[in-house]
Every structure is written in structure tokens, then in C-alpha cells.
Amino acid sequence: SDTQEDIQPPKQQLMIYICGECHAENEIKSRDPVRCRECGYRIIFKKRTERLVGFDAQRNLGIQRNVFTYI
């Protein structure tokens, strides 16, 4: 049986957001307030990933096309 010491809370993942006002990068965890640390603005945007993302799309003609794009 598990004891309290065996159960680990999930890791808080750090995400990078861009401020909508001053464009500063902010590292925000899931429980942190949504606010720019530089200017205090409350509208922030998630930073785009630089990894390759693939999408499978099918047309109505039954032809399968693979589309890969950097976002």
C-alpha cells in the first residue's frame, strides 16, 4: 500500500508567455497569477513552439496529404 511519502504531487510545468503590452517574456506556472512581471498587464500570450509539428489532413477525394509546418 502507498504511504504519504510515496505519493508525489504532479510537477508544475513552467510555460513562457509574452506580455501584450511591453512584450516581455514571463515564466508562469499553473498556479501563478496571470500578470506580466514587468508592467503588471493582465493580457499575455503563449509563446509559439519552435519544434516541428505534423498534421495529417485528408481531402474529400480520398487522397491523404501530410502537412508539416514550423509554428
UniProtKB/TrEMBL annotation:
It is found in: Nucleus, Nucleolus. It comes from the Eukaryota. Its main location: nucleus. Signal peptide: none annotated. Belongs to the archaeal Rpo12/eukaryotic RPC10 RNA polymerase subunit family. DNA-dependent RNA polymerase catalyzes the transcription of DNA into RNA using the four ribonucleoside triphosphates as substrates. Common component of RNA polymerases I, II and III which synthesize ribosomal RNA precursors, mRNA precursors and many functional non-coding RNAs, and a small RNAs, such as 5S rRNA and tRNAs, respectively. This is DNA-directed RNA polymerases I, II, and III subunit RPABC4. It comes from Rhinopithecus bieti (Black snub-nosed monkey).
